[in-house]
Design goal:
It is a single chain. By secondary structure, the protein is α+β, with helices and mostly antiparallel strands. It contains four helices and five strands; from the N terminus they run ααααβββββ. A three-stranded antiparallel sheet has the order 1-2-5, with no helix packed on it. A two-stranded antiparallel ribbon has the order 3-4. Strand 3 (126-127) and strand 4 form a beta hairpin. It starts with a helix and ends in a 30-residue tail after the last strand.
């Protein structure tokens, strides 16, 4: 699979230099998850495949973007823990300068709640809460991998949590302190945080 992703990444349109390789890998993996045959057999970019998963949402809506839904935007969700049948698969950080959650620490840590191996994403790939103003859920197949390393699988991400404390200092998360940084994700917001 990694060889296929490497080839696919080379055939995608070049991204601006500020975008990191991990973002390209996530986009290609999402394209394979959303429409593997179409992506492998037709001359389309990963972005074109992933954007087709936003259904009837207008271009530019959050659901048509590449971010995964924040857990608090899902039905019954909150920002205090991963939903049932998921595990924390990894985390990354950004220096936060906004006016919402984490203004006192100026750091945000984003945690991916990945689907347990063998479990299914509720509703498959769709807009969070079936609302175009929310990011997608269960569409991106990617894993940073610093948490729950005893689970060797890469599965779809159902949603994301945000904490103001470095995840490796929160015992119940089972994360190590290997950090990844992506300043662009500080724009990943929701009114329910």
């Amino acid at each position: 699979m990694s060889a296929v992703l490497d080839v696919a990444m080379r055939t995608t349109k070049p991204r601006p230099r500020r975008r990191r390789r991990s973002a390209r890998v996530a986009q290609v993996a999402s394209a394979f998850a959303a429409a593997p045959v179409r992506f492998a057999t037709r001359p389309v970019t990963a972005t074109q495949v992933v954007r087709r998963t936003c259904g009837s949402c207008p271009g530019g809506s959050r659901c048509c973007g590449s971010y995964t839904a924040l857990c608090c935007t899902l039905p019954g969700g909150d920002n205090f823990g991963c939903p049932p049948n998921t595990f924390v698969g990894g985390w990354w950080q950004c220096n936060y300068g906004g006016t919402n959650l984490c203004t006192t620490t100026n750091m945000r840590y984003y945690l991916d709640c990945s689907i347990n191996p063998g479990a299914a994403c509720p509703g498959g790939c769709h807009c969070g809460n079936d609302d175009c103003t929310n990011f997608q859920t269960c569409c991106v197949v990617f894993r940073y991998g610093q948490c729950n390393t005893d689970i060797p699988f890469v599965t779809a991400i159902q949603c994301r949590l945000i904490t103001c404390v470095i995840p490796c200092r929160i015992d119940c998360l089972d994360c190590d302190c290997s950090s990844a940084t992506d300043q662009h994700t500080c724009l990943h917001e929701a009114g329910c945080l």
